[in-house]
Amino acid sequence: MDLSVVAFWILSAVAVISAFGVVFFKNIIYAVLSLISVLIAISGLFFNLGAELIGALQILIYAVAIVVFYVLVISTVPEYKGEAVDPKYALLSAPFGFMLFMELAFVSIYGLWKSGTGIFMPQVVQEVSNAKAVAVILFTKYLFPFEVASLILLVAMIGAIVLGKKDIVED
Amino acid sequence: MVPYEYYLVLSGLLMVLGFVGVIVRKNIIALLISTELMLNSVNIAFVAFDMKLNDVAGQVFVFFILTIAAAEAAIGLGLIMAIYRMKKDVDVTKIAELKG
């Protein structure tokens, strides 16, 4: 069996089992730890697919930076005492989840059939690395969205500071 | 090589799990964590389609999704902190002032 096939099955099994942990663990710290496990497994899947740049960014931004936000907030908010899962909605979520899955399957099959192919030949991507190919597209065709993304980060930073100030809420 | 459909099935499974988490959980922080799960499933689908279609635009969009997820986590957790200071609670069923 090919090594990438083995890696796919192991990583996807880790991702799905940890995702169940994220959804159903009562203790929120366990849920966050499961989230880290999911994120690292997904990053491994990106490497397996040949997208090294995105795999590295996934670990750097998601599994390190964003999860630190969550741990910080959980450490300030005291332990949640109530039940983890609302039994009223637990049964209701099953048919809706199934409907969502069917819709996703339909859209991905139909969408792929409709769509064209990319601008790079596979040999070109193999010759220059994946990181270079992504960077060329990012800084030419998607330059304006890239700048807007930096603006969004700035606005989010200011918003988080304003929301986190104490006296505004206590007035 | 693994066929790309397997990656799409995995992506759909994670998306459904995140959706079920948003419906079922009562702790407001757990709701945000389930949203992160849904965002990640979209990332897998983008990269899988990229490999199928020999494109790199999907990976650029994954980059933007990472940026937006960071902004979303900062703002969402800031809101949770503000709500906690005001209500001393993180249970979504207790935060129902806007309910008509």
Could you characterize what this model shows?
The complex is a heterodimer of chains A (171) and B (100). Chain A is globular. Chain A has 171 residues and is mainly alpha-helical. The relative contact order of chain A is 0.06. The mean pLDDT of chain A is 85. Chain A contains 8 helices and no strands. Chain B has 100 residues and is mainly alpha-helical. In chain B, helix 1 packs antiparallel against helix 2 and helix 2 runs antiparallel to helix 3. Chain B contains 3 helices and no strands. The longest helix of chain B has 31 residues. The radius of gyration of chain B is 17 Å and the shape is elongated. Chains A and B meet through helix 1, helix 2, helix 3, helix 4 and helix 6 of A and helix 1, helix 2 and helix 3 of B.
Distance between the termini of chain A: 65 Å
Number of continuous helical runs of chain B = 3
SS field, number of helical segments of chain A: 8
Quaternary state reads heterodimer
Uncertain segments of chain B? none
Strand content of chain A: under 5%
Question: What distance lies between the first and last C-alpha atoms of chain B, to the nearest angstrom?
Answer: 54 Å
The biggest sheet of chain A amounts to: none
Mean pLDDT reading of chain A: 85
Helix content of chain B: over 70%
Bin the helical content of chain A: over 70%
Short note summarizing the structure:
With 171 residues, chain A is an all-alpha fold.
Tell me the layout of helices and strands.
The complex is a heterodimer of chains A (171) and B (100).
Chain A lengths: L2 H22 L3 H22 L2 H25 L10 H28 L7 H6 L2 H11 L2 H22 L1 H5 L1
Helix pairs in contact in A: 1-2, 2-3
Chain B lengths: L3 H21 L3 H26 L3 H31 L13
Helix pairs in contact in B: 1-2, 2-3
